[in-house]
Each structure stands twice: as structure tokens, then as C-alpha cells.
Amino acid sequence: MLKHLTQFYRPATIEEACALLAAKDRRNAVLAGGTHIAAVNDSTIEGLIDLGGLNLSYIRRTEEGYAIGAMTPVQDIFKSSMLVGPSGQLLRAAAGKIGSTLLRHSITAGGNLMALFPWSDLPPVLLALDAQALCRRGVPKRTVAVKNLIETGPRHYMEQGEILVELQVPEYGRGTGVAFHKFSKTANDYAMITVAVRITMQGETVKEARIALNAVCKKAQRRPDAEKQLENMVPTPERVAAAAAAAARDLDMTTDYRASREYREEVLPVFVRRCIDEALRQARI
Asked: φ, ψ for residue 144 (rounded to 5)?
């Protein structure tokens, strides 16, 4: 509950929004889709900055791949006919698993990343795709790796008055396969395990492997030890099994009322192996 909320702003420009966020005379917070802020219990927040009027809801083709506005509802990503190829497939697969249809019309692409909940479905996909985030602090802007943003934590990584405005996702052509799996008790429940995999082949060898997880850990993360089991190798069932096992090794596994740590440790390698197998199958087509 925002007990001291007294102001609501609807800026007309990004510069105005950044200035409001950087204001020192009151504590303002960004309002995107509203699903995160509705659950916030912060008595220091005095104003909300609604980003709905900044034209940040879009999906565009670029020379490198796709640009997705931070205010784009995840339902638009799920239903987009523009998002094709491996990157589009992985983005749409994850977006379609986020909550219910009603919630997907409210939850935004940028909000799903910035809130960084353990159960958020887009962050592991963005990690697997080596996505970048375009941030604005008024006129100045910078492009940062989503990996760095997640590892540091958005609240610590973002500068005072800085706003995420766009996600930039590279496209991958033939020789790349992807897979996404969300394991939850019901279709609309929070995830217990989320796995996103991208495999890029060069001939019969794995050129790049990206294995990212969420829900089994406190925040989305790549598993570099698992990736190294595949990269610059000809993938065999034994190497795939070794990569799946490495993905679960030395992981600070979550335990909660949905599933115990021991249960997640047991089933996680199975889902990782299945995702690697599916990504390899697609990469070889």
C-alpha cells in the first residue's frame, strides 16, 4: 500500500518523465502496467509517473533484429506476426506463458524486466537472446546489456532519473534453435522452473550456447558452466546430459510452498535437457 501517495503525473515527453523521477523534493516512482506497483508496500513513494503517454508501446524491425518499446503489453508480443525466426519464436513462447490473458494486457515488456521477480518469464529469454536495453536520462541515452542489468539489479544499475525505454533483441538466422519451458502447477500460476535455451550451430559444432533459468533461483541467470559443456563441441547425448546436470550444479535453489529445493534439484536437469534437445533439433533443420 502506498500510504503517502499524493501526486499522479502523466508526462508528455521522456525528458519530463526523467525529470520527475530525478526530483529531489519528493520520492516518485514509475508506473508502467501497474501490476507490480499494485503490490508495492512503500510508504516513501509520494508520486506516480505514468509512462502511458510516451509512445513506448511498439514492436519494430531493425537492421539487427527487433526493437520492443518498454510499455508494450506482453500480449502484443505473444500475438505479434512481426516476431518471427528464433528470436521471435522464443519471445512469443515466453510472453504467452505470462499470467492470464487479462494480465498480459497490463503487464509490459519493460516492467517484466525491471520488476525482476523470480517468476518473471521474459528475463531468462532476454538473457538467452543476448538482448540489450536502451535507457534514457532525459536527452542522454545509453544501451546496456540485459545481462548486466539483471546481475547488478535494475535499482542499483539505473542512474538517478533514468528510465528503460526499449528492449533490443538480435535476430538469429538458420543454424539457430531455441526452446522455452515454464513449469507451474497451473497455466496461470507462478513458475516453479523456467528454462530458456538458444543454440547456434556452425556446421556440426555448437558455436554459441545460452542456457538461462528463473524461478528456481532468486533472479534470472545464465549458467555458463552448462554452456561450456556444449560450446565448440559436437553435441552428443552425453554432452547434453552433462550440460543439463551442470545447469543445476552449485545453484542457490529456491524453496517455497510450491516446491521444495530437493524437488527442483531433481527435475530441473530434465527440463534443461529437453530444451537443449529441442533447440538442437531446430538448429539442424
From this structure: -125, 150
Residue 123 and residue 196: Cα distance in Å, rounded?
9
Query: What would the pLDDT profile of 203-220 be if each residue is shown by its tens digit?
Result: 999 999 999 999 999 999
**Torsion over CA: 200, 115, 13, 91 (sign):** positive
* Cell numbers representing residue 13 in the block: 515527453
Q: Which of 236, 216, 249 is nearest to 276 (CA)?
A: 236
Query: What does residue 147 show for φ and ψ, rounded to 5 degrees?
Result: -55, -45
Maximum distance among all alpha carbons in the chain?
61
Q: Quickly state the pLDDT bin for 280 (edges 50, 70, 90).
A: very high
For residue 33 the three cell numbers come to: 502496467
Closest CA to 31 of 12, 16, 7, 52: 52
Q: Is the pTM of this model over 0.85?
A: yes
